[in-house]
Amino acid sequence: xxxxxxxxxxxxxxxxxxxxxxxxxxxxxxxxxxxxxxxxxxxxxxxxxxxxxxxxxxxxxxxxxxxxxxxxxxxxxxxxxxx
Length: 83
What we know:
- The chain has 83 residues and is an alpha+beta fold.
- It has one domain.
- It has 2 helices and 3 strands, in the order H-E-H-E-E.
- A 3-stranded mixed beta sheet has the order 1-3-2, with no helix packed on it.
- The model has no long low-confidence stretch (mean pLDDT 78).
């Protein structure tokens, strides 16, 4: 059973994700909860008490991850022939 603060955080996250999904729909983009991960951040004491491993969003469960990934690719500067 999750702690009350954890459930509050999940409820807030789901409201934010609904807002992001609406915004994406307006831009003809789509939110994919199957590829979205959540990471809890806190002290070891607090982390040991959190048992939530998945958060239901739409028809899938978002996975709770133990580590972060950097998913961007740095752009290379444009070589326009100027030294």
